[in-house]
Amino acid sequence: MSEIRNRELAEGRDHQRPFRADALRRVHFVAIGGTGMGSLAGLVKARGIEVTGSDKRLYPPMSTALVDWGIDVVEGFDPRNLEPSTPGGLLSDLIVIGNAVRADNPEAVAAIESGVPYRSFSDALYELAISERHCITVSGTHGKTTTTNLAAHFLLASGRDPSLLVGGISLDFDGSFREGAGGHFVVEGDEYDTAFFDKTPKFLHYHPDTLILTSVEFDHADIYRDLDHVKQAFRELVHSMPPTGRIVAAVTHDGVRDVLSDASCEVIGYGVEREGQPGDLESASWWARDLTPGGAGLRFVLEDRAGGRRWDVESPIFGAHNVENVVGVIAALDALSVPAEESIKALRGHLGVKRRQEIRGRAAGVTVIDDFAHHPTAVEGTIEAIAQRYPGSRVVALLEPRTNTSRRALFQDDYVRALERADRVAIVEVGEDPIYSITGEVTECLSAEAVASALRERGRDAAAFAEIDEIVDWVVGGRQEGDVVLVMSNGAFGGIWEKLLTKLKAAQ
After folding, report:
1. Terminus-to-terminus CA distance in the chain, angstroms?
2. Which CATH superfamily is domain 3-121 in?
3. Architecture of the CATH domain 132-347
4. pLDDT in tens, 46-69
């Protein structure tokens, strides 16, 4: 039990104090700019409830989305943000506190002391939107956003009218949330902790009926000690599934298989044939094989081995990892009486999610693509996908190691192997800001120069840079007709997309 929870009980306060969702008039969000927090704020606002929020400086796409939804955000944290913005205005009926907020945040402290019911993002989402629906939770180290969006899109396109909350801006729904009249709610289930007053993983709070498990690898080194610690969290998720539930799992991954032993519900396995690796056919009842890139998409054969069915499929998104995401969703929905044929048809109209292989623009014969990839596995898969999508073009990979995990030396060799798939590579040097961690002091940081040097030894044109403008000059100065520049970061990357396109246009 957390220190703050003990203090609440000792002082007769309780953040689980009930509230009536149908009687909410004003909800305040502390750290509103996260993709989950902002999306929940948008959902609440769409119900006609007054929404206020605060955060540090925000960046697109969530900053733009909040403006579009008519939600004003106060920059900075202050107890006064909890007060009505106008004389005689409404006090909050509920305060939602994001997981990026520390225990010493003055606004969060004031919220706790106010006596107003408060919730973590995860609990608020469940109570406000999920509890009365069949919850499809998408969990795993990689692929959550794309897979969540695919599941919701297939449900909508087949007439099921789902609700969803996705960790990005969906191009299929023109937003990051949707509240439908159907019986399904599709949500990302993140393994990160819930709040400073609740250190359990967020995915435990959604109580999934159907769980799609895409991958289990080491990540979030700021809160997890090692891979075994990560697996403990996923084992708890698997163990929490009701006997009537269902797990649809990418069983060809070692980490996924390792956490399934305590499952008390049905498990459906899926996988994809990868280059040089036929895969574990015995444990995957849904299987994709014969992946063939083409001008209109990535073609593959899909088999439901248990049901003796087979389909020829063409996907508009490239990469074996994305085919795997597609297969997992088709398998999960087929088990929910959405026939695979309907999902395959819906796939043709899939548009995707912003910052997932999103084309930012073209200039001087160069295409600039934006992607959220930052873990080495995701980086490798994304480079592979871009190479498939643009055969014959040079892939110029730009990486910003920005997360608490990616800035460590943990993945240094893995980044070399992942980035080796690109033709040219630029990587940003890790800054001197302290790396947040509760698992021990961080003493070894990623060396961008060491990564670049190792890539040069392997015949790649690679360099490390301290400044964004230097990368822009390097890309533009060394460009060739047909280059595809792949920008990978989970942050703003210093606005490099706009700077690149501006300089490329000037060079035409």
Report:
1. 61
2. NAD(P)-binding Rossmann-like Domain (3.40.50.720)
3. 3-Layer(aba) Sandwich (3.40)
4. 999 999 999 998 877 788 889 999
